[in-house]
Amino acid sequence: MTEEIIIAGFGGQGILSMGKILAYAGIMQDKEVSWFPSYGPEMRGGTANVTVIISDERISSPILNQFDTAIILNQQSMDKFESAVKKGGLLIYDPNGITRHPVRTDIDIYTVDAAYESSRMKSSKVFNMIVLGAFLKIKPLIDPEHMHQGLEKCLPSRHHGLIIENEKAIEKGKEIILPKYLMN
Amino acid sequence: MTKTKDIRLMKGNEAFAEGIIRAGCDGYFGYPITPQSEVLEYLSAQKTKERTGMVVLQAESEIASIHMVYGGAACGKRVVTSSSSPGISLMQEGFSYLAGTELPCLLMNVVRGGPGLGTIQPSQSDYFQTVKGGGHGDYKMIVLAPASVQEMYDFTKLGFDLAFKYRIQVMILSDGAIGQMMEKVELDKQLPRLTDEEIIKKYPWATTGKTADRERNIITSLDLNPAKQEIMNRKLQAKFKRVEENEVRFENIHCDDAEYIFVAYGSSARVCEKAVQLGRAKGIKVGLLRLITLFPFPYEEVARLSKQVEGILTIEMSAGQMVEDVRLGANGAVRVEHYGRLGGIIPAPEEVLNVLEETFIKTKTYA
What we know:
The structure holds 2 protein chains of 2 kinds. Chain A is of the alpha/beta class.
């Protein structure tokens, strides 16, 4: 098993953290992992993306331009990465702020209303965990137990009280993900 | 008793920083620059003074950093600096003086695109500067090229070992991609720092520990007597030759039956490893020679493979620097071509495989 994922959106949406939590949870499940970010000026408010690979084998290139899964959280990233999903691959996006929806018919497309849901949960900070939950619903690569350990590793111990909230958000994401054709 | 491994998810820069602490480093002197600033950040957060007694100092500039390294190394201490390309350019005078005085130290360059301030994105355009000199005079440094975060960690201990074995400077030539990405790292247990008594015993050349019964040690590269200076230079050259004979390191990936090979190091080698998988899936017999030491360069392995394969494609994020050494190794036995991206762009696996096909396979004429 090798899963090559791009997560892309705005700086500040928690994209790099989401990738890090996923990668650390992968290590907890005894997988090989890599995490390759965009870095520099993009981190300070522009677009941000991270390539995460989770595999049973030694990972060759951490730098890719074709992906099994694209998780897309703004329009610029949609324009850039819709075409980068491998045939038969997966595209998950939050429709909030998307003006040009994906059109490909040779990949599976799902939506997750994470921005709306996180505002309903009164916590914009769990936005990224809702999105991560949505992904794990479609590709259950990591067990909840190892996700928990991944969160423990990534959050400083003074914030371990927030793990429950993050896990609830992951569960919420699993509930609210929808195939695109069901979107009205 | 079961022993649990200490495995962490770390950035390349952080793994390097943790590596030097655990390898018993005495002092790190540096000045921040993207994309290697995490080194100083990580070391500062580790409170190394309490942890191992290691000194971590942000110097006023890169020039100050390298000369602090000179001072520490002269005392026989395990000292380190790191920077990224523009900062490394500033240090060249210090490198040359360290070479002239045979002072061991560990250096690290997280290469970014140049020339000038260039870009903060990854590049491999400092090969000539690192491998062929940079500073003045006839000198070489051992150059290690990590291709993973684990190697960013492992090469710190290896680097110190080589530096002290040969009294030479060891440069870890990384790049922005390896420095910034996170991978799994398995950590070793902490090695103790040497005491002054141990340094005096192990390194009789060091300035530490002048006793009444021995002459003071003088660390200098200056000798105005040309005959003596030539002897000194011959001694240096003999050392570089010993390094060439004993320390060549590389990795062969699917080279045994290969008809074509990529030659690459660092993050380009990772891209090529994927391209080898893609090529093999298409039925192309392609392999990868991944360079681990850039000096000493594996000329003999290149020569051996040159007789076996029909074409060599070097992939480097430069306009073509390492390719010159690959051509020296091949010595005309096979066609050697270069493909590179510039200015901070990393080539994609499909892209380099396509270049290999276009260069060697689609143009092939059959009798």
